[in-house]
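Hey, resending since the last one bounced:
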Amino acid sequence: MHRNLAALPRVAFWLVPHCRERTVVQSLIIELAERFSAPVFVPHVTVYSCRRTPGQRELAVMAALADGCRPLATRLAGVASSDRLTQALFVRLPDNPVISGLSRALHSGVPLPSDYELVPHLSLLYQRLAPAARATLADEIDLCLPVIRFDALWAVAIPEQIRDLDDLRGWQPLMISRLDSARIVDTLDI
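The structure tokens again:
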């Protein structure tokens, strides 16, 4: 289902992996999506989410943060699963002061802060699966990546609530900024 970008009321701020790691994770996401009739999405760690504002002032906050944040690397803490649609299968990340700092800075800097709670993870599958299937998948996945590097911060328009698979389709990037660079890679004015 393709959505009108202006109708997506929230913005999620994603840390996106460096191209080498992104390629490895993206391949796994595509494989799992095909296997379980699930949506394909860009590998990311959601750092923060809030309502969009007129004039999209939250994007300026994000660009300033990206300019002051160096690319980062973090170890992976294992594959896990849950009954949440957006966390059917995911890679746990250990606490990271840079990721936590970005989340706090976004919370304090955006015009309409939210009660978003940071739980650093890298999702691999958006789908509802039986507990046994989730556990089996978590046991069989091996990313062969002891460390993952992140070098971009994305702002992505998303729906207010995510209840089913249709709510996971049609998300739209609003802006992409490289870390440690105020250079905006891509932007879309809506």
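Residues 20 and 184 are 21 Å apart (CA to CA).

Sorry for the duplicate.
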